[in-house]
Design goal:
Elements: H1 2-19, H2 24-50, H3 56-83
Helix pairs in contact: 1-2, 2-3
């Protein structure tokens, strides 16, 4: 469970750290890392549900929220790319 907690905390921490950077390219890097942490968390939740540590209702609710967070990260990444003329591609 501590690995799951670290992955969950890593998502907003990377977004915040990236936002504090001085270039859009660096911000994009941290957004990519945040998206990776979201994917890691999704995998850990699936494993927890399959092993019986997390009920299916809890899993469904958390996964739905995590998907929403993932969509927000993708949207923010697109916005950052557009604002800097696709320097992040």
């Amino acid at each position: 469970m501590s690995q799951t907690r670290r992955a969950a905390v890593s998502i907003p921490a990377n977004i915040a750290e990236g936002a504090a950077r001085h270039s859009s390219k660096e911000f994009g890097h941290f957004l990519s890392t945040a998206q990776g942490s979201a994917s890691e968390l999704e995998t850990e939740l699936l494993i927890a549900e399959r092993l019986g540590y997390l009920g299916s209702d809890g899993y469904t609710k958390i996964r739905s929220e995590l998907e929403s967070v993932g969509r927000m990260i993708v949207g923010l990444t697109r916005n950052v790319r557009q604002s800097c003329g696709n320097l992040l591609s």
